[in-house]
Amino acid sequence: MRSCVETSHGPEVSMPFVQSANVVGTDMETPNVLPKIISLFSGAGGLDLGFSQAGFPLTFAVDISPAAIQTHRRNFKEATSVAADLQDLGPSGVLAHVEKLLNPGESIGVIGGPPCQGFSRANVASVANDPRNRLPILYLQIVEALQKKYVVEFVLFENVIGIRDAKHLGTFRGILSMFREIGLVPDVNEYSALDYGVAQTRNRVIISGFRNREVARRVKPVKAKASGLTVRSAIGDLPAPAFFAHNLEKSSIPHHENHWTMRPLSKRFHQPGGADRAGRSFRRLEWDKPSPTVAYGHREIHVHPDGRRRLSIFEAMRLQGFPDWFVLEGTLSSQVEQVSNAVPPPLAQSLAAAIKTAMREVADQAFAERALSA
Prior knowledge:
Elements: E1 3-4, E2 23-24, E3 27-28, E4 36-40, H1 46-53, E5 58-63, H2 66-75, E6 80-83, H3 86-99, E7 107-112, H4 135-147, E8 151-160, H5 169-181, E9 185-192, E10 203-210, H6 213-218, H7 231-235, E11 242-243, E12 260-261, H8 313-320, H9 332-341, H10 345-373
Parallel strand pairs: 4-5, 4-7, 5-6, 7-8, 11-12
Antiparallel strand pairs: 1-9, 2-3, 8-10, 9-10
Helix pairs in contact: 1-10, 3-4, 8-9
C-alpha cells in the first residue's frame, strides 16, 4: 500500500461519535453509536456490504442503474435504495430523501464510487475534460449539502489509480481542495485487493476525508494474512455453469442463480487446448495465479482456466470476494456491469473496520479525559 501524503491543516473537531456518554459521579457510559451510512453511486453494493459487515448501519443508497438498485434492495433490506441519476437529483434531491430517514444532527458517513471510466488508463481516449470527471466534485457537493443537517464524520470513495495521472492532476487537486473547503481532512491511499483476502490483482485509489484529524491519523486497515489466493482457491470447487438462453429459468442454474455465462461460440474455445491468451477479449485465467482485475466489457469477460468458456457471473463474484448468499439481479449484461464496478467487499470491510476502530479509540480517549476532569 502506497500512501499519497497530504499536509492539510483543516479544522480540528473533538469528538467523532454522536454523543451519548454521561458522567454522573461514577456512572459513566462510553459513546458507542456508529454513524449511519449514505451510499452515493452505490452500484450493487460491494462497498456497502463491507461497511455493513463491519457494523455500520446502512440507511440510504442511490445509483443510476435500476438493475443495481434491484440488487441492492434484495441484499440490503434494511436500507432505502433509489434508482436515480445523481446529476438530475442533485444535492438538494439527495438531502430531501435523507431527511425522510434521519433526524437533524445525526451522525453519518458517506461512501460511494463515482464512475471512473474517464480516469481509467484502459480508456486510451481519456481526456481531462471528460464530463464524468466532474462526478467526484458533485459527490462532494452532495456531502456539503448533507453537512447542513447532519454531522458528516467521514467520506470515502473508490477510483482507479489513473485519477492521479498528470492529465487529471487539476481534477485530482480540486477534489482534495474541496475536501478541505468543507472541513474534512483528506487522505489518499492505493490498495491492492490481493492484500485484503481477495484472489485478484485489483489496484485502486481510496480517497477519504474525516471530520476529526486524529481519527484520520489512526485509520490503518489491517492486511489479511491469507496465503495461496488463486483462481483455484476462489472457484475451483464450482460445477459447470448454465449457458445463457432467453428461456433460461433460475431454477435451472446450478449452485447459485448467478452461475451462468455466455455460450462459447468463438472457434477459439474449440481449438486444441482451448482459447489462447491473445488480446484483451480472450484473457484466459491461470488456475494457480490470482485473477487480473475483474473489470469487463460486454465481450471481455475473462476466459475460464480450462479455455472452453468464459467465466460465469458467480465465478466473477467469487473472484471479487462476494459471499455466496449475495445475489445480483438483472440481465446478463447488467450483472457483468455490476460485478465489474463493485468494490471487493473484503477490502471494503477492512477499510470500514479501520475507521470504526479509529473512531472508537478517539471517542474512548476523549471520554476518559472528560471523566478525569469531572
